[in-house]
Amino acid sequence: MSSISSALVRPFLRFSVKLLFRPSVSINTQRFALDAASKLPLPKSVTKQNIKIDDLTCEWIEDESQPTKGVILYLHGGGYNIGSCASHRLFAATLSRACATPILLVDYRLAPEHKFPTPIDDAIVAYEWLLEEGYSSEEIIIAGDSAGGGLALATSMVLRDEDYALPSGCICLSPWADLLQTGDSMSSRAKQDPMLSKTILQRWADNYINVDDNPTNPLISPIYGDFEALPPLFIQVGNDEVLLSDAQRIADTARAAGVPTEFEIWPNMWHDWQMLAMILPEAKEAINKMAVFVNTQLHSNIKQRSNSPLEQQK
Hints:
By secondary structure, this protein is α/β, with parallel strands linked by helices.
């Protein structure tokens, strides 16, 4: 039984967010509106520090009211076209508090100005920075939602293939992992999904993929890749979203490759419902389940830190 809050939010999303994401709306307008709608104050105990890694902009989000352990490298969603630290800052703060883990929120470069593989390159730069700051790979969780979920998976594949020490886990929330949009849910969930559609996603995919790229390249569409020896996966998806098939195929492929995989399908939930923890009990519960995964994966490698990396450099 879904909450009263979710019943009220669903029509609002359909007549606001889904209309905003229409291909007739410019990418710049979508970016501005998404960031503007997300400008809410952070909890008092949570701090934000700006971090510059060469030309890459990031934010360090941390709940200073409790000892912290490890770090989550977070890659925001937005179809590789929109989204930013600003749009995902409050969610990152909520996740940091739930996990007692700081978050490096990465403002990777976006299409159409910066096409594939730029976001992956930026994610690797952020991962290398964490290692340079003294975090071991076992202390790092890589995570993302929507396109960021697919990006987290693709980044994990690059780390494996280039012989990096792998993070201790990978979280994929409502992941977009097939930029050809071939999943059954693209049609079977088209009416239920109050946020996304195949048309919306195809426009963003066209902006991201170079003309000469093959969309089945696993670093573009991870579902077509080799999952062997990837870090343990935690996947959440709503039953009412067009990306349901992407998440299901990730879980099935990962399990077939022997990757420890936790997979949750949430009844009556839509794309990225986890972002609305301030009003949705289902989002709070989903975040709490993420926290269990994070703490389980980091448990044997806990290193409590009272200061952020920036403060340690002073």
